[in-house]
Amino acid sequence: MFIINIISYVLVLLGAVNWGLYGIFNFNLVSAIFMGDRSVGAIVTYIIIAVAALWLIVYSIFARGVLRLADRHHEEA
Questions:
Q1: Which among 7, 14, 24, 66 is most buried, taking Cβ atoms within 10 Å?
Q2: Residue 65 predicted with pLDDT over 80
Q3: What's the CA angle centered on 10, arms 39 and 36, to 5 degrees?
Q4: Cα gap 32→36, rounded to integer Å
Q5: How far apart are CA 28 and CA 30, in angstroms?
Q6: Mind listing the pLDDT tens digit for each residue in 40-59?
Q7: Distance in angstroms (rounded) separating the CA atoms of residues 57 and 51
Q8: What distance in Å separates the CA atoms of residue 15 and residue 48, rounded to the nearest whole number?
Q9: Rounded to two decimals, what is the model's pTM?
Q10: How far apart are CA 52 and CA 75, in angstroms?
């Protein structure tokens, strides 16, 4: 599960950076990459980032607020 958490965390951070760029500079990085904010690639990217955010919310609720970003087996060594 920790790999999914790391991937989700990175995706949510990238989404946050995109929103920051859009808010500060009126530049949408996803739209620039996929040549349009309603292109298939942009829509898929937005959906993947939204699913990653929902995963982090749901996982942290079930994990009692603890988001694990490291494997337990590596922590003991």
A1: 14
A2: no
A3: 15
A4: 7
A5: 6
A6: 999 999 999 999 999 999 98
A7: 10
A8: 10
A9: 0.79
A10: 25
DSSP annotation of 27 reads -
60, 67 contact by CB (below 8 A): yes
CA–chain centroid gap for 52, Å, is 5
CA–CA dist 51, 73 (Å, integer): 27
Could you tell me the two tokens for 43? Answer: 């829509």
C-alpha 50, offset from chain centre:
7
Task: Please give the Cα distance from 11 to 24 (Å, whole number).
Answer: 20
Answer positive or negative: Cα dihedral of 64, 66, 71, 72: negative
Q: How many degrees, rounded to 5, is the angle at CA 36 between CA 21 and CA 57?
A: 55
Select the more confidently predicted residue: 63 or 67: 63
Task: Give the gyration radius of the chain's Cα atoms.
Answer: 15
